[in-house]
Amino acid sequence: MSTPFAPGSVSLRLYPHNDLSATGIVDELLVQASLAVQHGFDGVMTSEHHGGFHGYLPNPLQAAGWCLEEMPHGWAAPCPLLLPLRPPALVAEEIAWLAARFPGRVGIGVASGALPDDFEIMHAPMDDLAQRFTAGFEELAGMLDGREPRGLADDPAIRALRDLSFNLEPVVLRDQGFGPAVKALAEQLGLEHQLQIDVDVEAAESLGEKRQAALYQIIREAMSASIRRGPPTRMSVTVTERGDGGLLVEIADDAPGERRRSTFAELAERARTLNARFEVDQKPDDTGTTVRVSLPAYATE
Predict the structure, then answer these.
(1) Beta bridge partners of 282
(2) Tens of pLDDT along 157-166?
(3) DSSP state, 153?
(4) pLDDT digits (tens, 9 = 90+) for 39-77
(5) Is there a smaller number of Cβ atoms within 10 Å at the N or the C end of the chain?
(6) Is residue 45 classed as helix, strand or coil in its secondary structure?
(7) Is 197 helix (H, G, I), strand (E, B) or coil?
(8) CA dist 20 to 16, 78, 174, Å?
């Protein structure tokens, strides 16, 4: 399952058929959302305008929830949601609780809005719109990633989303780099599960920020899968330079082999977003597994 807005993901934007009744519009949206992910799209998006504006909805976040109930897999996102028409705290609460119902399947995109009718209907001013949008966006982001939760720090859905945000792209990855982030993850998992994890990933510091974030997710998921099927007593994570200028990433453990093919299929999908080759080597005596992700030279630039 693709992460919302992951690099390389493809989504379908849903537009309501305004020639239908309200009930018919909803029914048709849900059919389209379900068909989209069954035929190769990673997710769906809904957009916002008010007053019956043709092809748009006044409630894209609510509509995303409807879609997720009908979709067998994949993600949904209001994109864009017009942020200046709502208090950022309310948006944070609603998106967090929707994510609690559908973990890992909810995204959000926000915009300032531009149609005067939208603001007139909501009795909202358009004065200083760019500045208000920027301030609201910063407030919303701070609530969702835990930097500035304000009065929402004790909301359980906000806390869960903050933890998810840390797992996907921890603050230490943004602030200190790839190596410290992987070492912090290894230290956390080692303490929680009483296992030794050796880390040598300095070679990945040359990667760009987005590639580091994607590679971090692969390493995190491979380590978590190892713990689920074991747990192992020992694990190692290494990144080495290849002779052709590419990078070889290896996550090795002494845990029993993986029985669920879907686990490696999801890792392989993430590797493809990096244009990387994915391999799994499981020992025949069921005493260890090595996951390899090989990045070509052009993917490391």
Answers:
(1) 289
(2) 988 877 666 5
(3) T
(4) 999 999 999 999 999 989 999 999 999 999 999 999 999
(5) C
(6) strand
(7) strand
(8) 9, 21, 47
pTM > 0.85:
no
Query: What does DSSP assign to residue 127?
Result: T
Kindly list the structural domains of the chain, giving each domain's residue range(s) and its CATH number in brackets, ordered by start. 11-167 (3.20.20.30), 172-300 (3.30.565.10)
Structure tokens at 26: 């909803």
pLDDT tens digits along 190-218: 988 889 999 999 999 989 888 898 899 88
Pairing, β 247-253 against β 234-241? antiparallel
- Asked, as a colleague might, if the bond just before 231 is cis with ω within 30 of 0, I would say yes
User: What is the distance of C-alpha 201 from the center of its chain?
Assistant: 23
Of the candidates 194, 189, 246, 198, the one whose C-alpha atom is nearest the C-alpha of residue 220 is: 189
**Residue 71 CB partners (closer than 8 Å, separation 6+):** 33, 34, 36, 37, 44
Strand 234-241 relative to strand 277-282: parallel, antiparallel, unpaired? unpaired
Tokens encoding 277? 């080759």
Residue 299 token pair? 């993917």
**Residue 251 has which token pair?**
């996550």
Instruction: Flag whether pLDDT at 104 surpasses 90.
Output: no
